[in-house]
Amino acid sequence: MWLHSINPSVKLLTILMTIIVLALFLDPVLYFVFWIGLMIITFFLSAISWKTWALLTAPFLFMAIGYVWTAMLFPNEELLKGEHMLFEWGWLILTEESLMRSAGLGMRVIVFSALSLLFVLTTKPVLFMLSLMQQLKLPTRLAYGIMAGYQFLPLIKDEFQIMQRAQQIRGVGRPQTLKERVSHWKSFVIPLLASAIRKAERTAVAMESRGFTGEPRSHWYREIPLQKRDAVFVAMIGVLFIVSFTVSSILQ
Amino acid sequence: MAEPRNAPVIQFKEVTYRHAEELAPVLSDLSFSIYDGDTVLLAGPSGAGKSTVTMLMNGILPSNGSGVLEGKIEWFGTSSAKWKDGEISKKIGVMFQDPESQFCMTTVEEEIAFGLENLHLPKKEMKERILLSLLQTGLEGFEKRTIQRLSGGQKQRVALACLLAMQTEILLLDEPFANIDPLSRIELITTLAHLKENLGLTLIIIDHDLNGWTDWINRVILLDSKGKITLDFPLEKALNHRLSQFEALTVSLPLHIELQKGNSRIYLQEDKWIKQLTDSERIRLVNMLNSGHRKNKITAALMELRNISFSTENQQILKKITFTLFKGETVAFCGHNGAGKSTLALLLAGLYSPSGGEILLKGSPIRTYTPKEIRRKIGYVFQNPEHQFVEHTVEDDLSFGLRIQKLPANQIQQRTLAMLKAIRLDGFQNRHPLSLSQGQKRRLSVASMTIDDLDILLLDEPTYGQDAGSMKNLTEMLLERKKQGKTTLLVTHDMELIHSICDRTLLLSNGTVQFEGAVEALWELGEDTLNRHGLTLPPSEKLRQSMGVNNHVASLN
């Protein structure tokens, strides 16, 4: 799909820039329009499943609601002076401005999470590292180290499960309380760490024995190209920002 | 052998190497040469410094270690100090022991390309070399496959393809078969033999097992446990004059060579040896190999599986398996990787619950037992012993099960000490289990299970990565259990282990039982059928069959 084939470095830089620019505003309308546009781009131009996306957004949504709520319940008394009162009920005071502020904070969390997910869910880690090396000149020593480590993650997960089973067999009871659970997990840390270090050492030796010295490469087997569509992507996000900005200024 | 020698490619001259904080050197006063086109076996017990030699030979050490090197190493006649960083690894490639941790990329082609990029080759040439190397290793069509999902044998093929693509002239094989099944081992050795012949490679093999190599190795170098060379001979001469040294250094020999022990002349080739045997010798050997130690006493059923099925979210792993385990027998589960052997063992141990069917333990459904009761009856030894250590010292780990049962302290101590002695770990009480050697770890993991007097013991691939010494020790421990009338279940690819201790086997394929019956009946299925299931005939059975056939032919003549 289209979004998946955008150059990862371009995607990363665009999204970082967008986040920096958006952080200069605290405008819920601008955020909302931008978010709608982002949703359209995400779901029409990628193969992300709704389910995964919703699951990953849920915690951010709670965070956003929490922001709005606390901003409404515990407003800054100093700021409230001279603002337009919406309603007042006992100690609960809500002004127009404080509503906008808290809604802005909440929307900011949601927009930023949508931007991050757009990157994370459409970018393969290996292609990302290759692109970082090819476009942004990340040192190969660092990038290949990260890639090798990435191969270990599933192994460590498997090993953790095996250890859980093995301990069960030895008659170590299932942990009941939180305290027991913590000490149970702690007993896994040393053997897991030991095996991870050993694996890392072996892999480092294996990589070096195949002539890897950390010098820059002169040819890539898998080139991560810069294409026209990368420019289109940047333009798309830029246009979306301008539209959101305009809509917000017209409405206010 | 008086054949003219080619130019030396690797030369060690009085090399001594010691690790930074240790007084005793790992290697002392090593002098040897590897010549172009050689096939050399470097063997020795664990701890002899074989891995250190490997890393010195291809320049990983001393530059990446904190150790001190004395003496001189030369590559292609030039002192190692004069070679540029990373330059020698383009000429000498290494295949490592652990198939899990020698890759840094996700797919096969990316992994091979990693080495080619280090050589700064243009993209077009990389493509050609990748295709060729996959063809040479029998991995056509594997370009896009994810390495982590391949079997151990396939991973080692990928490792080989990586080296072939780089066109290294010298291959160093650092026990590359220690963690793969015997059929893959034989297939890989055959592939290597062909490649050596066609490409004129120089091979240096580091192993503690001579099986499969004897036909095409021309020289042996033996290292002792102090890191000294005790022998550097052509293979035939070494076997004929110094056979006892192989044994002393726990190097496994092929069966037909072991049987020639004490003879004045030792034949390398099995068929040549068989041909010169007299009829009476042959009959004596066949009878010896045919030792009928298995008795089929009918005993009570200990566990019964009725129509057991097991599936995960997207796959059915076991399909309607019915099987009865009788008291006192030793049974092996065998079959391909992914046939469902380990899953079946985990079900029997009560660690998984079946998705269909019923498991009975001593007549009552296993659901009616509490986990604690099951643990007192069934033990499970995992493939990697490190996973199941729970305490920080050997003694505490060994006595853990007894302490859970709240036995009196003096009794616990008595039994623990007796067991320590039995597994020859007395004096190691206060060591951390992870600091033991591979063989010691295995013995400890089995002992901490058997000390509980469990009725049923399950072992998952207990012989992986074990040298001849610890293998023998393990077999003895299991035979001792058998003598006591205890039940043992093995998941294994080790055919000789099945042959020497098992009564019955269960052959699984795609989650169904393909064969169930006495071990002898399994061998009768023939080599081809066994190969299709990733199995081989055990060496002694193979030898017996080939002698039997010869016998037959001889009597016809």
TrEMBL record, chain A:
Membrane topology: Multi-pass membrane protein
Key word Cytoplasm present: no
UniProt entry tagged with the keyword DNA repair: no
Keywords (A to Z) from UniProt: Membrane, Transmembrane, Transmembrane helix
Primary location: membrane
Compartments reported by the entry: Membrane
Membrane-crossing residue ranges in chain numbering: 12-45, 52-74, 109-132, 231-251
InterPro entries xrefs: ABC/ECF_trnsptr_transmembrane, Cobalt_transport_CbiQ
Pfam families in UniProt: CbiQ
BP-aspect Gene Ontology terms: cobalt ion transport
Highest taxon of the lineage: Bacteria
GO cellular component: ATP-binding cassette (ABC) transporter complex
UniProt protein name: Cobalt transporter
TrEMBL record, chain B:
Subcellular location: Cell membrane
GO MF annotations in UniProt: ATP binding; ATP hydrolysis activity; ATPase-coupled transmembrane transporter activity
Cross-referenced SUPFAM superfamilies: P-loop containing nucleoside triphosphate hydrolases
Topology in the lipid bilayer: Peripheral membrane protein
Stretches assigned to the ABC transporter domain: 10-251, 303-535
A Pfam family it matches: ABC_tran
This protein's UniProt keywords: ATP-binding, Cell membrane, Membrane, Nucleotide-binding, Translocase, Transport
Transmembrane feature ranges: none
Gene Ontology CC entries for this record: ATP-binding cassette (ABC) transporter complex
Family the UniProt entry places it in: Belongs to the ABC transporter superfamily.
Name of this protein: ABC transporter domain-containing protein
